[in-house]
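[Automated response] Your request has been received and processed.

Submitted sequence:
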Amino acid sequence: MKKMNKIGKKPQVSVIIPTYNRGWILKEAIDSVLAQDYKDLELIVVDDGSTDNTFEILASYGNDIKVLFQENKGVSAARNRGITEASGQLIAFLDSDDLWLPRKLSTQIDFFNQMPDALICQTEEIWVRNGIRVNPKKRHKKPSGMIFEPSLELCLVSPSAVMIRRSLFDRVGEFDVTLSACEDYDLWLRISCRFPVHLIDTPLIIKRGGHDDQLSSMKGLDKFRIKAIVKIIKSNRLSDNQYSAAVKALKEKCEIYSDGCRKRGREEEALYYAKLADNY
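Generated structure:
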């Protein structure tokens, strides 16, 4: 990528876009990064085995972006590959169906300059579904600070909205490649049980939804959230209050998921999740 910084100097920020068969929308995401008013960055696009026109789109940018190709391994492996190859001490992610507003990076850089002890921050977001702007419900309102307990109910951090100090991954690990969905929920739990997640209360990303290939549109997502909660319970990282909140959330999600399995005639699966809740 063409650098705006001094020759030989590593960029301050590494932006990672994982993508898979998103040729129909990928260019808009890339262009929103290149249009940032903050220029001390590298843009890494990880193509997770696309079979559409993604290759041609990426090739059209020449040296303006760094492209990594891999066999299809899922979004966690793609993001992790980007982290491994990143040069910056700050990492930002952008999902290939989302967009950034021009001051997204500069606003977060200013925040980290003012808060040198902060490890992670996110911005507010604008929701667009099938091309129409929608208002998030109250339950989706992003808190700031120690957000572990409210994050148990649902994911309150957006990958496209965060900026993370690279050193944080050394302390909590990267994305779990065994989770085919809710991999971000899992990471945010591991982070938020130990560190504050700061919110910049300005919408600086456009989060677009409603299309068929979104992981968040998969059925049975609670199965993956349950796995993430069990992991964090077993981590021995939780305070007494956090442990109690995690067990409560686990029991509630197991009950809901078990009931859903039973209604669909999946009795064995229903019994498994009912018993799992009783283990804690």
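Summary generated for your ticket: Strands lie at 13-19, 41-48, 66-70, 90-93, 99-100, 120-129, 132-134, 162-165, 198-209. DSSP finds ten helices and nine strands in the chain.
If you did not submit this request, please reply to this message.
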